[in-house]
Amino acid sequence: MTSPKSSQSTFHPLPDNASFQFYSGKGEDLHFYHANGFSSATYQPFIKALTQSFNVSALDSRAAWPDIGKPPKSRSWQIYGEDLIAFIETHYDAPIIAVGHSLGASSTIYAANMRPDLFKALVLIEPAMVKRSVATAIKWMPDALLKYIDPVKTTLKKQDRWACRQSYREYCQQRRSFQRFHPQSFDAFVEHSVIDDGNEVTLRFPKAWEAHNFSRPPYMLKEISRISVPTVAIRGKPNLFFSEEIWQQWQKCQPDALFLEDLQHGHLLPLENPESCYRIIVKGLELLNLD
Hints:
Helix 1 runs parallel beside helix 13 and helix 2 crosses helix 3. The strands form two sheets. This protein has a seven-stranded mixed sheet with strand order 1-3-2-4-5-9-10, with helices on both faces. Strands 6-8-7 form a three-stranded antiparallel sheet. The protein has a domain at 20-146 and 217-288: Rossmann fold. The radius of gyration is 18 Å and the shape is globular. The protein is α/β, with parallel strands linked by helices. The relative contact order is 0.16. The longest helix is centred in the last third of the chain and has 15 residues, at 274-288. It has 13 helices and ten strands. Pfam families: Hydrolase_4. GO terms for molecular function: hydrolase activity. This is Alpha/beta hydrolase. One of its GO terms (cellular component) is membrane.
């Protein structure tokens, strides 16, 4: 699991500050790619569940790499797919299963379309995307205006420094969005979403990068229609980040995919119920009959 499996070159090698983890488990090799504003370690209960059936790796989004600096001028999410390609080429010598959530799912789609030979199957949990009309409008919107539109505006204004980890825990306990987390997911999120910075703690995934990603959400259905790798599509109940309309359109543009849902949980279903999400993934991969 250490030599590249193809003579094709990567778009760019991963830099020395790229962060990733390996989790020993049982079964086939699987990579997990996380959502915007998170790091892979914040999903530890979900990853632990995955290790019941898989050997798991998790590359952090470059926004969560140490000393990453400011976001680039380009707002294309394709760079995260290129990072994933470089990671897989470096660490695997056979196609792997790739699971992605939200931004991680969209990034995995980009990678699979650029290098389908690296992937045995895709599991896409609510890929982050918007309608074509919204993506087009945002594309032509001046950068100076984008910062006044949600979710960019709210992200840039949110608190990102605390006196200590306990203060951060208390802050998270007051946020409605975190109250739906499984207790173990909440603990992992609190522990791994901040880093020490002098006498304070600050966000591991800088809010400037999170807002940067929100400022150019893509129209992904064209990319999805190009997928040639066997795919399991998973959604939670319709929500602000993933609508019923998008779900229906996805089924039309990728009819060969397997579509599964968990209507008891929302967009953050791997964090709300890690074990249930794991079971859906296993079910989907079994139904694909990959062997």
